[in-house]
Design a protein that fits this description.
Layout: E1 6-10, E2 15-19, H1 22-34, E3 42-45, H2 55-59, E4 69-73, E5 87-93, E6 96-100, H3 102-108
Parallel strand pairs: 3-4
Antiparallel strand pairs: 1-2, 4-5, 5-6
């Protein structure tokens, strides 16, 4: 994939937005479609232990697809991350996200050693 990715950092709001040129994103999705792959989750980190959805998260998911989970890992993924410390949010459509409670996260995500 080519194209310069743009990182906008607003120190005032302490947020970063990563976007790519539309042709690069279109290429990504066409490759996924061609290979019969699909995105199964939007996974990213936050700098603290807060794992809710920020304004940037809500406005810029990888894909708007009903049922697609957005998984937020705390503390930039540093340390021992437990399932009950991550945020899991399911897209319901029309800009609405459903927050999955910490106690129910282990019903959606199964971690195995291979």
């Amino acid at each position: 994939m080519t194209g310069k990715h743009i990182i906008e950092l607003s120190q005032k709001l302490w947020r970063a937005t990563i976007t790519g040129p539309r042709p690069a994103l279109n290429l990504l999705f066409s490759i996924l479609t061609e290979k019969n792959y699909c995105i199964i989750a939007d996974v990213h980190t936050h700098p603290t232990n807060w794992v809710g959805l920020s304004e940037v998260d809500i406005e810029h998911p990888i894909e708007y697809r009903i049922g697609l989970p957005m998984i937020v890992i705390p503390n930039y993924g540093k340390g021992d991350i437990q399932l009950n410390s991550i945020g899991v949010h399911l897209y319901k459509g029309k800009g609405i996200w459903d927050n999955i409670s910490f106690k129910d996260v282990n019903k959606l995500i199964i971690c195995e050693d291979k």
